[in-house]
Predict the 3D structure of the following.
Amino acid sequence: MFHQEIYTGVGQLLKLRDDVGRYRLLDLGCGNARYLSPCLKQSPPILYEGIDLSEAALAEARGYLAGLPDPVVTLTRGDLLEAVEATDKTWDVIFTGFAVHHLMSADKARFFQAAGRCLAEKGWLILVDVVREENQSRENYLMDYLMDYLNYMRDNWNKIPPDQLEEACTHVHDHDYPEYFSTLKEMAAAGGLKASRIVSRYGQHYTLLFARSSLPQI
């Protein structure tokens, strides 16, 4: 899934902020934070909060995030949409990796509304996710991309017990609802995030940056 390439780019993006050491980051669907943690160690926040439904992933995240230079780290079990809608903090960066495409369209719209509400004036929403080609139906997405990816999982994820692998494949097949980039832009703009940019693309895997008005030169 091009994690190394994608998160190298995320790390470079965070270095462009003029508040490194002072910014507050909300990580939605943080998992074990394995790939984001090196980025944070290069450009440390003053406050990091990770949200995930998996207690096992959060336990691993504590290890990966250990050694950050004196941020306040909070790891909370919870649903990403409920968390961003409920937060009473203002965030300089909201990050989410390979999570929002699991939401249905109406919930994605809610996500962008909530993100726009709680982002600082110069805040960023960094969205790493799967994006459909313009005019590509979900059915065609399933046939053109997802079936190949499921076959790749079955052929190469050979350290995972077969029953767990099939459970993962079923989850991917049944819960992937990627949008068009144009649709994500419209949802973001409706939430007050009128500036958007494709930072990187590796196949169907995009890094997208949203802000209220201005974006950094990359």
